[in-house]
Design a protein that fits this description.
Shape: globular
Number of strands: 0
Low-confidence stretches: none
Helix content: 40-55%
Distance between the termini: 22 Å
Order of helices and strands: HHHH
Strand content: under 5%
Structural class: mainly alpha
Number of helices: 4
Radius of gyration: 16 Å
Length: about 110
Amino acid sequence: MRRKATGAVDSGFRKAKTLAFRPGMYRLASPPAGVDRDIVDKLRDPVENGLRDLAGRLNDRRLQPGDDKLLSAYAAAAGVRHPSLEAVAADHQARQGLAATQGDDVQYARARTP
């Protein structure tokens, strides 16, 4: 991963293919009352699960209505699903003169980002 702010290459992050299906990766540690600990995954799972069929339809060149929205939703969410988001968010907060995100703030950012 290359940091946008500094251009430095950070090779300490594992590749996405080694992170797939890691249970609880986006689980909230301290959700407010009434908020499901796994809300981030529940928001993203329908998109990611739909991609399996979409990949086949793309390969067969047989798209169906709504595939463009599914692909757009996935593309918009891809950045926030990466485990480096916490570090990237901290860089952004620092440039804005704000405190770094802590605890569940990073997961909330994932849930709020389309």
